[in-house]
Amino acid sequence: MKVAVVYNRDKKGIINVFGMQNREWYPEETIQRVVQALKNGGHEVELIPADRFVLSKLKKALPKLSRRRPNGIALNLALGIQGKCRYTHLPAMLEVAGIPYTGSCPLGHILALDKVVAKQIFMASGIPTPNYQVFSHIDQPVQYIKFPVIVKPRGEAASFGLKVVFDERSLKDAVAQILEEFHQPALAEEFIEGREVNVSILGNNPPVPFPVLELILNDTENHIYTLEDKFGKHRKVKKVCPAKLPKETSLFLQKLAIRTFDALNVYDYGRIDIRLDEFNQPHVLEMNSMASINPASSFVYSAEKAGYDYDQLINKIVEVSVLRYAREAPEFFREERANSETGENAESFADRKEMS
Ligand SMILES: Nc1ncnc2c1ncn2[C@@H]1O[C@H](COP(=O)(O)OP(=O)(O)O)[C@@H](O)[C@H]1O
Ligand SMILES: [Mg+2]
User: Fold this and answer.
1) What is the mean pLDDT of residues 31-44?
2) What phi and psi values does residue 341 have, to the nearest 5 degrees?
3) Ligand 2 centroid to 159 CA: how many Å?
4) Which of 6, 48, 278, 287 is 20 to 30 A from 28, alpha carbon to alpha carbon?
5) Does 174 share its domain with 314?
6) The pLDDT of residue 116 is above 60
């Protein structure tokens, strides 16, 4: 099949630099590694930047959809360039043009990217999440939260702008810094002292959780997973997968991850970040609808423990997306749909479920 890998690496190809600027990009090596994985999976691959020329390039790169079998899809690595809803930009353009793509649709991405909206949904769905308050200016009184508190931008990723604070004065400073640096409200959340785990998920109908992964953060200030850790500058955070937890706790966390994935309408793959308190009770921090697929990421590490090497994992993401379209848009990909209805894929998923 023809796969167009669509990505953002820079600000070329836009008309104006305007509004909130994106700070997270996939490294060039990861994009190349994904291309290699797809080629190893037998696909024909083309790389296309997600800018204002993307649709005309995709029109040339991808064949018109076949009614019988999957013949073209975009693999979405586009984290966006600017604006509040940057993860939704490419998916929305692809929806307009009728091009199938991997990962969530705009709905799932925006519910996950906006941490405040995500928490409102968690609370309405009975998904445990730390108490919080949103600050749009520094003079707001502290009303709903107890110290210590962690302050973060409302809609960022990769640990940008995090600060743990212990009193009202420092909270105001942290809020001021976020308002100025990130041009968006600050989310102040009660700090959960304890272990940190995440659960990655692959597929739909049903989504399948990988084994729970623990990040060992003991030797860090405030025990948080920082921007520097994620880019591997200072220290290597040890990842333990499967996490050393009682079996019932792991199962509970995997079920919680699926509930979170479903509550936010995320598709195909994702990762849920969770803190465990002193009683091992989980508190969901966030859902990553664009979970990193860097070879060193938690998602890839836990996928390995579930039996997928890197090439298999990337090709599986394409496969689960195609199956989703075969269900969602039954006029296309008839053969794929027939396949999934015979239970072939359902069975391999059931096996995976056993493993995790
Ligand atoms: N309420 C919290 N209690 C304890 N640690 C937190 C809390 N919120 C965030 N952290 C720490 O900060 C890291 C990044 O926060 P997160 O909400 O996952 O945002 P992102 O990864 O999108 O920047 C987490 O992995 C965790 O180590
Ligand atoms: Mg996170």
Assistant:
1) 98
2) -75, -20
3) 6
4) 287
5) no
6) yes
Which residues on adjacent β-strands are paired with residue 196?
215, 275
Mean pLDDT of 328-335: 81
The first and second tokens of residue 111, run together, are: 């519910």
pLDDT interval class at 237 (50, 70, 90): confident
- From 154, 195, 273, the mutation candidate for ligand 1 (largest count of ligand atoms within 8 A of CB) is 273
Tokens of 184: 């968006």
What is the model's pTM?
Answer: 0.94
Residue that the structure tokens 């996939």 belong to = 26
Q: Identify the domain containing residue 298 by its residue range.
A: 195-355
**Residue 347: predicted pLDDT:** 39
Environment class of residue 295 by beta-carbon count within 10 Å: exposed (0-12), middle (13-18) or buried (19+)? Answer: middle
- Residue 126 in any domain: the answer is no
User: What are the angstrom distances between the C-alpha of 199 and each of 82, 248, 304, 342?
Assistant: 28, 15, 13, 29
